[in-house]
Amino acid sequence: MAESSTSTSVLAAKSDAEIEELLDRMLTRLALCDDSKLEPLLSKLLPLCISSLSSQSQAVRNKVLEILSHVNKRVKLQPDIGLPLLELWKLYSESSGAPMIRNFCIVYIEMAFQRVDAKEKENLAPVLLVNISKLPLQHQEIILRIIVKVVGECHSSQISDEVAAKYRLVTDPHDRELFIEFFTHTMLYQQVTQSGGSPSGLSVSQANRVTGKQQLPSDKLLLGKLGILNVIQAMELAAELVYPLYIAASVDCEESVIKKGEELLKKKANGVNLDDQNLINRLFLLFNGTVGVENVDPESRVNPGSPALKAKLMSVFCRSIAAANTFPSTLQCIFGCIYGSGTTSRLKQLGMEFTVWVFKHAKIDQLRLMSPVILNGILKSLDSYSSLDADASAREVKTYAFQAIGLVAQRMPHLFRSIHFIWLNFCLPFTILCTYRCISFLK
Which domain holds residue 252? Predict the structure, then answer.
């Protein structure tokens, strides 16, 4: 670990001409070195070489690039030749004010992770998460992809107490929020069809962050998701922070991920505070995406969740007072269920059930904004209802619609007073029909 510090101090005592001469000798030595002896040479050469990029001399930088080009040609096709991972990470961490050094370090750190044994990988991966929120965005993405790969390879079945303790040392809230968000995006990611686009619940840019713009093999994606769930479980984080991730896992396309996600929802998130506004906002984003949000470029536009994810979220919203009072997300959610593209009979039923919940629990100032629009939507849906729609789901939708009308009439009577004959011509027949339906169901 002291190698990079030694390299820096050695270079600091030399002039640019001396550094260039040193690099020239290193290049000659590298060219004459057999492949069998290359690894120990690189353990000293690579950190020293990259450290030389701190020089302002173009001749020195050109010599560094010449050496690194030679290293790449020798190493890339020989994965058994190791690279000095710990020394490179030490150099990266100490070079916060030298972007060029960090840029080259991160390239070789990514390469080095593919060449070290499992023990070294799993021990260093948690260290990379410390202060990750302070790193450049591009470097964050590379490191997070490295960590997902490591947890997939090392922790898809279990995680040791020793390694779990290292992950628990990541205590900075910004660091935690950052990698939880990335892990959630990885959990949402599914193999994109040949038609292109991004998966449900993600934007194009988010999907690219997860994959590095390369197709993820389905087996590695599965292992990564299982590894993520084991690591998050071991970290013992607040339920409100990890709840969206568990929800996403519980509707995955892989049975093993679904099973683990459901298990964690019951064991680790049973006491989650569903009236935490930050949590509800994140869940609405999973449901609605950024539909209707202005000034969002196409690559950053988040797609609404899949029908399975939406159905899962609706069961959550119908237990949250905060969800009933989050305008306009509440309104988008209801109309997405009833009229949205790709909606299902189940979502229509849940959307109308949520409407009843909203009309019952929304604050009056929120209800004033939402109720006229929602009521108009309910009336249109009832107008399009056919007596031929005899399945149980359609009857449930209609029953909830009548309940919603009754509730909004109770809490917002002025909506009905504007038309004096509305009770005789509309509400009374519906009330009678609703009562009849309820009696029929009881029978």
Answer: 117-191+198-272
